[in-house]
Amino acid sequence: MFEKGKSGNPAGRPKKGNALTDLLELKLDKEKFIEAVIASAYAGEVSIQKYIWERLEGRLPDVHELAGIDGENFKFDIVIRTIEKDK
Q1: Whole domain around residue 47: which residue ranges?
Q2: What are the CA-CA distances from residue 12 to residues 7, 68, 82 (Å)?
């Protein structure tokens, strides 16, 4: 147990530098990257188009509807069975 008022990590958070995110920040030319993403979207890359759309407009909610024949209420039965182990 730690004493009240004393840090459990006196050296603090490790310095930045070796994490993948840090290395990308140093090496990535953000302008060129954005241009490449946009070019891919214009070239018809649907996954890139969807990503950009969702970043700009927000993600559409997932809606799932069940309906029976001719739009009537959908009816289903749930069957629960117990399986006994071999002894």
Answers
A1: 20-62
A2: 9, 60, 54
